[in-house]
Design a protein that fits this description.
mainly alpha, 8 helices, 112 residues, elongated
Amino acid sequence: MDAQNVDMFLMANAKFLEGHQMYQIRERLLAMDESRWKMLQFMQFNDPVIILIVSLVTGPLAVDRFLLGDIGLGVAKLLTCGGLGIWVLIDWFMIMGLTRRKNTEKLMMALY
């Protein structure tokens, strides 16, 4: 893979991914076959800021968890009304990091 394309991809998507994983992601992108490049260009990532806003607005309804693909946790959060509000407060602080981790996992799965 061309180093310039890899650097452009990382600059465009850095806010969606975990910062401490960037070196590993860059190395895997450089080792990747050219035929898979189109697939990566069309990959959609969840925006951590948007997920945070959704979490702030719809806290006990667990829409944030459903958007991230945590169906089981979403159902549990919905049935407990956000853990009586405690779970909602915890998610407000942790949801952006969780979104970046899920995006990084999604990218890593695509690179293998």
